[in-house]
Amino acid sequence: MAGYDDRDGKIWMDGNLVDWRSANVHVLTHALHYASSVFEGERCYDGKVFLSRKHSERLLKSGQLMDMDIPYTVDQIEAAKQAVLDANALTDAYVRVVAFRGAGEDMGVASARNPVRMAVAAWEWGNYYGDAKMKGAKLDIAKWKRPSPDTIPTAAKAAGLYMICTMSKHAAEAKGCSDALFMDYRGYVAEATGANVFFVKDGEVHTPDPDAILNGLTRQTVIEMLEERGIKVHVRHIIPEELEGFEQCWLTGSAAEVTPVGQIGDYTFEVGQLTRDIAEGYEKRVRGL
C-alpha cells in the first residue's frame, strides 16, 4: 500500500473535508516539537463506531489534562467522524481523531496563544497484530517503565506517552516479537505498547490496576463481559514473578481488539477456551450481535 501521506480520500481538518494529500501542517507546529497532542483510535464496524461518544468524551478529557481546551463539542466530533466515513465510503474502518497545538505566535515551551487544531482520518485496517490474532502474539519485555502519574498525566491519551512505546516496539520487532510488555515505575506489570493485558489462572482473570496506565475502553468492555459471564476479575497490582503461574493471556485495545498472547519473554501461555470465548464475544458485541 501507499504511504499514509499518499492516498486517495478525504480527511477532516478544522471543520472542513480536504483532499488526503493536502492534509498538512506547518513544520513549526507546536505539537511536532513539544508533543502537545492527544488522540483517539477507534474502530467502525458495519457503519457504526464502537463506543464512539465515549472516545470523543475521552479526547476532550485528555485535552483538559494537557491544559489544551479542544474547541469542539462531543456532538461536533461525532459529526466529523461520520463525515469522514461517508466521504470515504467506509463501513469497516479504523478512525483516528487527533487534536494538537498548531503553529502560531508562540514557538517555545509555552504555547497558550497557538490555536488548538483537530483532524479526523479513517482507513481500512486489518488485524493490528496480523496472524497473532489467531495463534497468539509473542511479546518482549520492555527495558523502559511506564511513568508515575506524578510525572506526566497518565490518564490522558497523549502523544508524549508513546515515545517509549515506539522504541520498545521497535526493539521487540527486531527480536521477532509482535509487541512489548511494560512494567510500571514501581515494577508492577503494566501494559503493552498500545494495549491493556489480562491473565487467566484457575478460571479467574487478573488484570493490572490502571492507577498508572490508561484505563482502556476495550479493557472496560472486556471486564464487563467477564462479569456478565460470572467470571471473577481481580483488578490489582501484579508482580512480574507471577507471569510463570498464569495459564492464559490476552491483550485488549481498540486497534488490538482482543488478541491472545502465546509468550511474554520466557513465559508461555496457551490460547485457551476463555481467551477464545472473550475474543469471539467481543467480535459479536462490537457488531451489536
Automatic annotation (TrEMBL):
<dbReference type="Pfam" id="PF01063">
    <property type="entry name" value="Aminotran_4"/>
</dbReference>
<keyword id="KW-0100">Branched-chain amino acid biosynthesis</keyword>
<dbReference type="InterPro" id="IPR043132">
    <property type="entry name" value="BCAT-like_C"/>
</dbReference>
<dbReference type="InterPro" id="IPR018300">
    <property type="entry name" value="Aminotrans_IV_CS"/>
</dbReference>
<dbReference type="GO" id="GO:0009082">
    <property type="term" value="P:branched-chain amino acid biosynthetic process"/>
</dbReference>
<dbReference type="InterPro" id="IPR001544">
    <property type="entry name" value="Aminotrans_IV"/>
</dbReference>
<comment type="pathway">
    <text>Amino-acid biosynthesis; L-isoleucine biosynthesis; L-isoleucine from 2-oxobutanoate: step 4/4.</text>
</comment>
<keyword id="KW-0663">Pyridoxal phosphate</keyword>
<dbReference type="InterPro" id="IPR005785">
    <property type="entry name" value="B_amino_transI"/>
</dbReference>
<keyword id="KW-0028">Amino-acid biosynthesis</keyword>
<dbReference type="InterPro" id="IPR043131">
    <property type="entry name" value="BCAT-like_N"/>
</dbReference>
<dbReference type="GO" id="GO:0004084">
    <property type="term" value="F:branched-chain-amino-acid transaminase activity"/>
</dbReference>
<keyword id="KW-0032">Aminotransferase</keyword>
<protein>
    <recommendedName>
        <fullName>Branched-chain-amino-acid aminotransferase</fullName>
        <ecNumber>2.6.1.42</ecNumber>
    </recommendedName>
</protein>
<dbReference type="InterPro" id="IPR050571">
    <property type="entry name" value="Class-IV_PLP-Dep_Aminotrnsfr"/>
</dbReference>
<comment type="pathway">
    <text>Amino-acid biosynthesis; L-leucine biosynthesis; L-leucine from 3-methyl-2-oxobutanoate: step 4/4.</text>
</comment>
<dbReference type="GO" id="GO:0008652">
    <property type="term" value="P:amino acid biosynthetic process"/>
</dbReference>
<dbReference type="InterPro" id="IPR036038">
    <property type="entry name" value="Aminotransferase-like"/>
</dbReference>
<comment type="function">
    <text>Acts on leucine, isoleucine and valine.</text>
</comment>
<keyword id="KW-0808">Transferase</keyword>
<comment type="similarity">
    <text>Belongs to the class-IV pyridoxal-phosphate-dependent aminotransferase family.</text>
</comment>
